From TrEMBL:
Entry keywords, A to Z: Hydrolase, Lipid degradation, Lipid metabolism
Residue ranges of every copy of the PNPLA domain listed in the record: 18-223
Organism in which the protein naturally occurs: Pseudoduganella flava
Protein name, entry field: PNPLA domain-containing protein
Pfam families (alphabetical): Patatin
Motif position, GXGXXG: 22-27
């Protein structure tokens, strides 16, 4: 793995931040993207994730001996189902609905069916995370700043559990709370506790569901990990697993369900800023606002501080997946995982090839 660029004999790091969405087996696309970024010399300094993105993020921050590529490979080998030799590859996509031994198991206590509040147990994933990751390292912000987001059943909003809260971060935004915590496998599983398949995960007396139910793109969580000097310069890579534009209308029930899922979990972050001016106009306004209010009482207001933190949005680089095939979010077959991994790696390589022609990114790196 190449982790540095060498310019005129001087070794230069290429730091980045990562935002990883949820999407079940589609997370193999993220695995491919991260692999390509590592191969190009990028080094994560801060990473946030939701659901399968939380598992990928944990595999990065908790990589044993710091070998991120090997850590992600081991994790995906653990949760990929073995191939059934006599069954065509195209027919193995739905096998995980019967269970995934290192991820979840279907419940068998049918005599208690009237009292079920989930169809599966996620106990296997707790063991998988504990076995494959270094949680001492994962909890060390000097190694990588790390956070995962879950939806609180008490507040109805998001809670981000992280190993670091940056100077100037906002820990209570009403519907989004940031909590400095010693992270355990339970925090990772909480981020992916998607009902009704998976049960809620209890942490410190509060039950949590999948963070993607509230927002599947945890940008706010990442912003709270950034130190002030990084806001203007640190490249932030977002992996978008649910592109929704330009697709034909679904014609089968499975296609309908796939599209409905994509619409639920698509990236909505851009719609919050700028109105007709869009994100570019919002960022231009922030620049003018900073110039106009420097040294005034306005600059000391907490709300102003958060607005200035949003300047980091200019550093976003979105690597988008192609639309998922029907049922792709539960396709943990060897064929399905390998296909999504290769697609993610190719998409990142193509994106990086375009970025290499942009002097601004090279300077920021």
């Amino acid at each position: 793995m190449r982790s540095f660029d060498v310019t005129n004999g001087v070794v230069m790091k290429k730091p980045m931040a990562l935002i990883l969405q949820g999407g079940g087996a589609l997370g193999a696309f993220e695995y491919g993207v991260v692999t390509a970024l590592l191969e190009d010399g990028w080094t994560p300094t801060a990473v946030t994730g939701v659901s399968i993105g939380a598992i990928n993020a944990a595999s990065i921050a908790g990589a044993k001996d710091g070998d991120i590529a090997a850590s992600m490979r081991r994790m995906w080998q653990a949760i990929t189902l073995p191939t059934v030799p006599w069954l065509p590859a195209s027919k193995q996509a739905n096998l995980s609905l019967l269970g995934n031994p290192n991820f979840w198991l279907s419940r068998t206590d049918y005599w208690r069916l009237p009292y079920w509040n989930s169809c599966c147990t996620t106990a296997p994933m707790l063991g998988t995370l504990a076995a494959h990751l270094d949680f001492d390292q994962l909890n060390d912000p000097k190694h990588i700043r790390f956070g995962v987001t879950a939806t609180s059943l008490y507040t109805g909003g998001q809670t981000t559990f992280s190993n670091h809260v940056a100077k100037g971060a906002h820990t209570d935004g009403g519907q989004h709370k940031a909590v400095r915590a010693t992270l355990t496998p339970s925090h990772i599983v909480a981020s992916g506790s998607l009902p009704p398949g998976f049960p809620a995960t209890r942490i410190d007396g509060t039950d949590y569901w999948d963070g993607g139910l509230f927002s599947n793109t945890p940008i706010d969580a990442l912003l709270n990990l950034l130190e002030p000097h990084e806001i203007d310069t640190l490249p932030i890579f977002v992996v978008d697993l649910f592109p929704t534009e330009g697709q034909p209308s679904p014609v089968t029930l499975q296609e309908v369900q796939t599209r409905a899922t994509a619409l639920q979990y698509q990236n909505r972050f851009w719609a919050q800023y700028g109105g007709n001016a869009k994100l570019e106009g919002f960022l231009a306004m922030l620049d003018k606002l900073e110039s106009a209010t420097a040294g005034t009482a306005v600059a000391d207001m907490p709300a102003y501080d958060w607005l200035m933190r949003l300047r980091a949005l200019k550093n976003l680089h979105v690597i988008a997946s192609t639309p998922a095939a029907a049922g792709g979010d539960h396709d943990f077959s060897e064929y399905g995982v390998r296909s999504r991994y290769e697609a993610g790696r190719a998409a990142a390589q193509q994106y990086l090839a375009r970025l290499s022609r942009q002097p601004k990114l090279r300077a920021a790196a």
